[in-house]
């Protein structure tokens, strides 16, 4: 059994040394946030770093044809492997820890196990998943959805970013799609992630085990009106989709609060986007999340109905399109309880989506959270102390030892 004596004293420093290699990559000097979109230069540099770290540890790296990378410790022909890791890509001006923490921690956990003389009976695979945030091509957990078959390669090949670049062009080839041969070689998946809230601060604990991910999704709201001159069009004659859009945003906020759910409109596109022109179209993206599917469906329908009714009064028109939806994900109860007992850690649900949520439908899956003292995520204010990150590495190493040696 791995003991704390293996890592006391030096692990926070070794974490910081490895973490500092990543810190400058893709960071905006003005905001302090990160611009690490999938398959762009910063994210590709991080992928090169992944290969370098794997090579230093004699872990052969392969790809699944969907942009996901896998570094393997153990017999390349053996099945029943334990999978861990996370992603490199970020939301626009996002925080440093969301994603990369799980990959850095996985490599350090390998170091800890080797230093302790642990010889796993099952292989360990460290993953770097592609386009988890969906910030470039619009579909979150794109790599894991392709791997599992939740997203077809035909649909994925048609995805384009804001500059019109297609996924196949960015990937360098048409995505391969489902890989049951690869998935069938994994016995379990454990993803370590920074907590995206303050529950661990409130509980005064450095690490937790996840119980479930709320159902959530993204809906595109297209408001169509009539473009016109801002200075000559009478107020009574306007068909202004911005008014309907603004009403929909307020309705989403109200309906989410009434239901104890979450609703956010954090992205908007306006055409022609001129100060002195009434918009012709306004498109907003609704991110909605709730503790159960019925609440989520009720929230989205209420927003749609209220915005549609308002559109009738504004002389505008609304179309609502579901772009992605993830059902309630209850992580494997037996595995979760086993890890919570092993680590003597609290168990928490989360409203944030993860690759673990996609993989949970295909193999026993668990998540570990590391305390975030600010409680802020998807922002430069996202944080974690080196001491807590070291505690996360130790926890992950104990979990890996339990699953690969037990």
Please provide a written account of the structure.
The chain has 406 residues and is an alpha/beta fold. The protein contains 13 helices and 15 strands. The strands form three sheets. Strands 1, 2, 3, 4, 5, 6, 13, 14 and 15 form a nine-stranded mixed β-sheet that branches. Strands 9-11-7-12 form a four-stranded antiparallel β-sheet, with helices on one face. Helix 9 packs antiparallel against helix 10. It is elongated and about 80 Å long. The termini are close together. Mean pLDDT is 95; it is low at 1-8.
Brief summary of the model shown:
This protein is of the alpha/beta class. The chain has helices at 11-22, 41-56, 100-115, 142-148, 153-157, 167-171, 180-183, 199-203, 241-259, 293-314, 333-343, 355-359, 386-405, and strands at 61-63, 69-73, 81-87, 124-129, 186-194, 207-213, 216-224, 228-229, 262-271, 277-278, 281-289, 317-326, 329-330, 347-350, 365-370. Strand 1 (61-63) and strand 2 form a beta hairpin.
Fraction in beta strands:
15-25%
Judged by helices, strands and strand pairing, the structural class is: alpha/beta
Question: How many strands in all?
Answer: 15
Number of helices: 13
Q: Radius of gyration in whole Å, from Cα?
A: 23 Å
Mean pLDDT: 95
Principal-axis shape: elongated
Helix and strand element order = HHEEEHEHHHHEHEEEHEEEHEEHEHEH
- Amino-to-carboxy terminus distance: 10 Å
Helix content: 25-40%
Biggest β-sheet: count, sense, barrel?
Answer: 9 strands, mixed
- Regions with pLDDT < 50 over 5+ consecutive residues? 1-8
């Amino acid at each position: 059994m791995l003991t704390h004596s293996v890592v006391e004293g030096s692990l926070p420093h070794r974490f910081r040394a490895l973490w500092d290699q990543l810190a400058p990559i893709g960071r905006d000097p003005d905001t302090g946030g990160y611009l690490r979109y999938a398959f762009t230069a910063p994210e590709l540099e991080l992928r090169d770093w992944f290969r370098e770290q794997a090579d230093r540890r004699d872990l052969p790296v392969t790809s699944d044809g969907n942009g996901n990378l896998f570094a393997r410790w153990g017999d390349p022909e053996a099945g029943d492997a334990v999978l861990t890791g996370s992603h490199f890509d970020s939301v626009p001006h996002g925080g440093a820890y969301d994603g990369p923490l799980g990959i850095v921690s996985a490599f350090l956990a390998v170091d800890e196990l080797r230093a302790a003389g642990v010889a796993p009976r099952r292989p360990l695979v460290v993953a770097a998943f592609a386009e988890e945030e969906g910030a470039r091509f619009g579909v979150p957990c794109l790599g894991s959805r392709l791997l599992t078959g939740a997203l077809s390669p035909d649909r994925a090949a048609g995805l384009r970013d804001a500059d019109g670049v297609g996924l196949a062009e960015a990937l360098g080839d048409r995505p391969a799609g489902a890989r049951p041969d690869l998935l069938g070689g994994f016995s379990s998946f454990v993803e370590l992630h920074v907590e995206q809230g303050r529950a661990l601060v409130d509980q005064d604990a450095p690490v937790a085990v996840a119980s479930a991910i709320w159902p959530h999704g993204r809906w595109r709201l297209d408001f169509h009106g009539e473009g016109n001159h801002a200075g000559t069009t009478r107020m009574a004659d306007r068909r202004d989709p911005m008014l309907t859009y603004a009403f929909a945003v307020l309705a989403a906020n109200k309906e989410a609060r009434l239901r104890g759910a979450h609703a956010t409109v954090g992205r908007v596109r306006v055409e022609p986007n001129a100060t002195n022109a009434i918009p012709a179209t306004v498109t907003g993206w609704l991110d909605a999340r709730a503790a159960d599917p019925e609440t989520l469906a009720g929230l989205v329908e209420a927003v749609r109905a209220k915005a549609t009714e308002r559109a009738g009064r504004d002389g505008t028109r609304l179309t609502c399109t579901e772009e992605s939806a993830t059902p309630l994900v209850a992580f494997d109860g037996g595995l979760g309880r086993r890890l919570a007992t092993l680590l003597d850690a609290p168990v928490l649900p989360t409203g944030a989506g993860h690759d673990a949520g996609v993989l949970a439908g295909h193999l026993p899956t668990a998540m570990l959270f590391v305390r975030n003292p600010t409680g802020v995520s998807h922002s430069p204010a996202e944080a974690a102390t080196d001491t807590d990150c070291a505690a996360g590495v130790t926890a992950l190493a104990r979990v890996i030892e339990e699953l690969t040696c037990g």
